Every structure is written in structure tokens, then in C-alpha cells.
């Protein structure tokens, strides 16, 4: 079931910010890409791709699991091998959305249109956006796994041609009108996401999760992939950052009780 919310997640973020920091606070920086985090016994230094450096007592890194898996951000010293191992072991979904807009609708009026295929899940899940945005005449196709990778690595023309061929096979008696617009999400190759959301893979243990959550000295971590119950969801990210904030406050107030101070680069 899909639901529509006029402002998306914006209101949620603004609500969380309210009473904590004004929206125009200069400490709130947008569109800065972190490339390096140096962390030592006394401080953490964060470097951005435009040459800026920010120094703090502690840092909470909330990059997606995909960004950590693809080593998009360098850490100095590097993350402990056991930490990097569990980062690499946890699962991160490959997922691509394709939006096709037509001058008129020619498809079924149901919210979902499902296609059966010999290859499991292959171009199977189409959503009729007219059921959410009346008159938009947008069809929304979700691709998973290898199909998502294929789309991300192909040109727009290749993707659209293939998708239209499949759509024609779904509606063989229809003359499909020319597209009026399209959008292919490219989260799997976007250096700020490197995938969509996490999943708990077979064989990954609770102990592994503890290492995934663990800070490395003054460097803390938060994000959806660190919530052992609601990973993959926004409320998982929220719960994770709450827990990390509590751990961090405890470390600041009483370093000897810092739950993870024992994790060293030899782990
Ligand atoms: C198609 C799709 C549908 C989804 N549907 C739902 C849903 O219906 N319900 C639900 O609860 N969840 C849904 N999710 C999952 C949800 O979006 C994630 O669980 C959530 O966004 C995770 O939040 P996060 O803060 O952990 O990570 P992210 O949202 O990935 O935030 C990480 C942030 O770090 C930034 N960043 C990355 N690298 C750098 C860098 N080097 N320098 C600076 N900044 C950087 C990114 O730009 C991003 O803003 C969906 C996800 C996808 C892809």
C-alpha cells in the first residue's frame, strides 16, 4: 500500500530541528561532501571535498551502509578490520525506480500492476501513480538486485527502450503513446547513497550487530542499518541516532563508563 504525504519527510526533519537549532543556523551545512575523517585520542577532524576542515571532540557518522561499504569516505586511522568486516557483511539492497509519464493513461486502474516472469521479480512491480496523483499519468516501475544494477549501468535510452518493450508486452493491443517525461533513480551508483536500504543477511549474528553499532574511539555511528529491529526504515534511523546520542552523552559525562571504549584498532 502506498500513501501520499504532501511534504514528504520534510516536516518530520523540520519538526525534529524545532527547538534544537534555528533553520538558518550557520552550523547547519548543506551540500558539503565529506571525504576524510581523522580521529585521534583528543579530537576528530572532518574534511570536505571543497577543502574545508571541521574539528570537534566527537563525531557521529551517519553515512549509509552502502557509502561505508564502497569506502566513499576515508578514515584515518582506518576502521578496525573487524568493524570493516561487519560493515561489508551486512546487506544493502540494490533498488532502482523508473518513472514514466505519458500524455494519457492506457493501463489498468489498480494501484499495482504485477507482471509474471520466468525470472523471479524481473520487471514485475509497476505502480499506477494516478491512484495517488490523479491525472499525473505516471507509471512507476521498481527494479531490484541485478535488474537495478543493470539500469544504473545503462544509459537512459537503453533503460527506456527496454522498459517500453516490456510494457508493450504487457499491453499488446495498445499503441503506446510517446513518453512526455521519465526519471531513472540511480541510487546504486550515487556516491551519497550507494544503494537503497539495508537488510539482515543470513548468518549475521547479534554479536556482529554490536560491532556494526560500535564507535571507534571518538568516532560514533548512526543510521537505519544500525537498528537491530527496524533496519531499512526511517524510524530505524531515528531509533539508532537516539541510542547513539545517549551512548555519546554517557561517554562525555563519564568516559570510564563509555560502553565501547575497549574497541581498539587491533579488534
Ligand atoms: C526507494 C526507497 C523507498 C523507501 N521507502 C521507505 C518507506 O516507505 N518507509 C521507510 O520507513 N523507509 C523507506 N525507505 C528507507 C529509508 O529511506 C531509509 O531507511 C532512511 O533514509 C535511512 O536514513 P539514514 O539517515 O540512515 O540514511 P540516509 O537517508 O541514506 O542519510 C544519509 C545521509 O548522508 C549523506 N551522505 C552520504 N555520504 C556523504 C558524504 N560523503 N558527505 C556528506 N554527506 C553524505 C547523504 O546525502 C544522506 O543525506 C526507502 C528507501 C528507498 C531507497
Descriptive overview:
By secondary structure, the chain is of the alpha+beta class. 28% of the residues lie in helices and 20% in strands. It is built from seven helices and 13 strands. Strand 2 (44-48) and strand 3 form a beta hairpin. Helix 3 packs across helix 6. The longest helix has 20 residues, at 234-253. The structure holds flavin-adenine dinucleotide (FAD). The site of flavin-adenine dinucleotide has 21 residues, from strand 7 and helix 7.
In short:
With 267 residues, this protein is an alpha+beta fold.
Q: How would you characterize the largest beta sheet?
A: 5 strands, antiparallel
Mean pLDDT: 93
- What is the strand content? 15-25%
What would the CATH topology of the largest domain be? FAD/NAD(P)-binding domain
CATH homologous superfamily label of the largest domain: FAD/NAD(P)-binding domain
CATH C-level class of the largest domain: Alpha Beta
Number of H/I helices: 7
Distance between the termini: 44 Å
Which CATH architecture of the largest domain is right? 3-Layer(bba) Sandwich
H and E order: HEEEEHEHEEEEEHHEEHEH
Q: Helical content, roughly?
A: 25-40%
